[in-house]
Q: What sequence folds into this?
């Protein structure tokens, strides 16, 4: 596809429900990132994949958060037993090394999660 | 202490003026610095990257980096109302640390 695709665009969950957020990166991009952006804040790193390997999950706020990328392309971020503080925009980004050695991040439009 | 600091603004400038956005960071070993633009309700969009001390120009945008002072800035010349957005400073390699962003308002 032309860009990073995320679904759903909006999600409303009742407190305690489980949710799954999907990210379809740019074709061929090796690296995939999940960020969380609260209202009025900058994005906060959650986790990072290189192909199917989850290389860094230090930003996941609790063990209720789980991410996977089983075939090295599409990724799913799962949040179990959602809490109100989980309300935020969840951004997915992918990247691939450029000729100049940089790996700029390309962000999707995000999933806005509201927990009521 | 937040690792990347930005003034939240809003920074208001008239159309045609130069907008100056500033960012400081705490990690002395940081090597890569980025400016992202984020329109309300949209995703961040990369507009500039800089890796070496000094200035880097791209069209109306100039990024300035001073590693000794741990300071990076973005200048927007001939500001346009369409430049009105939140500008996010980000530091790091792949795993980026973002500031809270500076909201820029360009009035016609």
A:
């Amino acid at each position: 596809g032309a860009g990073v695709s995320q679904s759903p665009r909006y999600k409303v969950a009742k407190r305690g429900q489980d949710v799954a957020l999907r990210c379809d990166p740019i074709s061929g991009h090796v690296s995939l990132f999940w960020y969380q952006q609260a209202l009025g804040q900058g994005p906060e790193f959650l986790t990072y994949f290189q192909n199917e390997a989850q290389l860094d999950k230090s930003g996941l706020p609790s063990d209720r958060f789980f991410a996977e990328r089983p075939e090295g392309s599409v990724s799913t971020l799962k949040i179990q037993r959602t809490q109100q503080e989980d309300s935020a925009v969840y951004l997915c980004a992918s990247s691939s090394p450029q000729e100049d050695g940089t790996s700029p991040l390309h962000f999707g439009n995000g999933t806005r999660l509201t927990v009521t | 202490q937040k690792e990347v600091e930005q003034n939240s603004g809003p920074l208001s400038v008239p159309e045609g003026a130069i907008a100056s956005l500033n960012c400081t960071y705490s990690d002395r070993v940081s090597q890569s610095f980025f400016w992202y633009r984020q329109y309300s309700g949209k995703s961040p969009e990369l507009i500039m990257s800089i890796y070496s001390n000094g200035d880097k120009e791209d069209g109306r945008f100039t990024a300035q980096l001073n590693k000794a002072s741990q300071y990076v800035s973005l200048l927007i010349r001939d500001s346009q109302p369409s430049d009105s957005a939140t500008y996010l400073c980000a530091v790091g390699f792949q795993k980026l640390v973002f500031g809270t962003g500076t909201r820029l308002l360009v009035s016609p």
